[in-house]
Amino acid sequence: MSMYMEGILTQMGVNILMAYSAYIILATGQLSLGNAGFMAIGAFCSGYFTVRLGMPLPIALIIAAFTSSAVGIALGIPVLRLHGFFLVLGTLGFGETVRAFFINFEPTGGAYGMRGLFGTTFEMVLITVFLVTVGLWGIEKSRIGRAFDAIASDEYAAQGIGINIRAIKVMAFGIGAFIAGLAGGLSAHHLLYIEPGNFSFLVSAMAVLFVILGGMQTFWGAMLGAIIFSLLPEMLRFMDEWRLSVYGAALIILMILRPNGLLSRIFLRGLVVRLKR
Amino acid sequence: MSALELIDLSKSFGGVQAIDSINLTIDEESVYGLIGPNGAGKTTLFNVLTGFLEPSRGSIQFFEQDITSFQPYEIARLGIARTYQNIRLFGNMTVRENVATAQNYRASFGGLKSLFWSRGKDEAFLNNNLEYLLDLMGLWEKRDLVSTDLSYGEQRRLEIARACAMKPRLLLLDEPAAGMNEVETEELWVRVDELRRNGLHVILVEHDMKLVMERCDHIFVLNFGKLIAQGTPAELRENKDVIEAYLGKEKD
Amino acid sequence: MLAQQLANGLLLGSTYALIALGLTLVLGVFDKLNIAHGDVFMFGAFAGVAAASFGAPLILAVIAGLVTSAAINVLVERSCFYPLRNAHFLAPMLSTIAFGILLQNVATQIWGSDPSRYPNIEAVTQYEVGGILLSSIHVIILVISFSVMLSVDIVIYRTKLGRALRATAIDPEVAGLLGVNTKNVVLVTFLVAGALAGIAGVLTAVVYSQITPLIGIRLGLIGMVAMVIGGLGNLRGAMIGGILIGLVQVLNDAYLDASYRDLIVFSLFFGFIVLKPAGLFPQPSGNRS
Lengths: 277, 252, 289
Known about the structure:
A: mainly alpha, 12 helices, about 75% helix, B: alpha/beta, six-stranded mixed beta sheet
């Protein structure tokens, strides 16, 4: 495989993971516009372990993901009291606070960031995406997945049948942060050089856009959205410098045409029925 | 042992006493009616009982356990299930899934185990109960429809099935017959009666006085947040307070 | 020294206040968050710089920015909010993020990604008032931004149009029944919000002399910080919030270290949302959840 293809596919894998991290939080009827913060934690944490402490990348990745997850749970506890725009703005504020924190955090190079990160292979990304996909599939099939559905549909009634909605929401933040942490670590060791500016608000926003455009009722939608919108800029290369403008316009138009995303659960059900015939 | 005991239970919003020093006890497995004019505090009482509102004063004992400050989900797991005045189904699920989801939380939450215990196994394990409930509520044929595609009456019955899937010891029905015609109401009654015979305490809020007087074993009358009377339908027919405060007006 | 910093903070804060005011108008009247607001601001700034580079005096540059941003903001309403008026409340908000991406890239195509400069303004006089050094241009900017804020305040709280806006904010349905043309109100809201962003954009370009297509992201976020600190949906609160952030930033740069600037501003933001979501000046009549 050419370096170019490998680069695109690795980026796509990272985007799929980011979409998953946004999806799992959306699945409990919440929204995080701060997942770039978790990604940054995963990136700088794993970078610190590999570059400064000489740890092997897979172990560094896992520790970084757990660190990010712990922060996600800590974040989930206060912000899950928030609703609507307060939740949107709270998570957004969190992401920006993390970015600003790393600007001032000298052990990971402050505003200048870290160099010398390497080791992410395409296979590693593929395996991670595969394992996380299996994990999400398992969650969707489990009672936890059903609790997610119940909360997303009606929090009030979900409590009424015995679902501890606070615990489930915090769990969703923890899982989302874990996945974003993995994405951050993989991306950092692919880019070779990272700085806090890599983890801006736009990264969080794109992760959510992937899910919304792909379809937020199932994690397959998140995956589809991430794949399409990672490839679209490449497919638009013939437009040269206007491609990112066209990309933005395409997102807006798609939003108008399919505000509920490309993949819905009803569509998937129909597909399964048709395939079984 | 009494199933439910409310001691001096009060709830105020700002200066308004929505529930005012209610004392009542429920012992036997039968159907209790909760009646009163609009704004008498019936739904507020349900919300306090199920933990959605915190009482300002007083306590709630459920099978001799103090549940006054419990969270809604804890109360639900202890065995108080309810339906809602404005139907609250899980619109993103089918009929069967609505009921199956509620079956999951009867026992204590399985923690890690629940992650590995797939939905398929759940359903096999609990299928008997699910089939029975859907059949009883006349929804077996419609089990694979998305819940929002049901008719109004069917949605109300599904809410009852979902509540019963938790195997509750106490079932609170908030205007179960609202919007139903006479035939549907009669059918509903037969179903609720069968549930009760399975060993269940039922409290229902109802506006249909005829239904309440004919079918409830015991009636509590609320007015302005106060419990102004209680007794069998026959006793209440003789009660002057009730006739003046409520029944008299209804018969106009 | 402190007085001088406060004056600088006031100057910076007044542009933040204008941004926050526009965001708050849209959120308050319409209950929608426009995340592209910062990019609308950025476009106004570039329009002002472009006008000035053709030799337009400051006031014409401001008008150029105002008109451009107002027009773009109406475009935002037409393409992100109106078509998605019945969708989930997140949908239009996410759509504005895409609109922001579009604006950033169009601006890059037109003006390039290198910083653009506002041409030097001639005939600047320095005033010294009680030890505070102010250039005439700073005085003009303060006068413009504060008179704009004052007039918005008067329009909202003293005129018929303002009553229509506030009525729509409280309950669009009732406002409609009372004879308010809510469609026009929405349009006016976006026009005014865009105009405020445009004015702020040109003033920012003048004060800091250079702008890039990506400044809108940060400035939009700062506007949201001001909006939250002032109390979501509270117009006067948003203005005060903007000025407070300007002061905090300038004082931080003077007495601490410029690199702490974002950390302090965004920790404040996050802290407010979690601990005091109603902000300093809670909106009494708001319908926020």
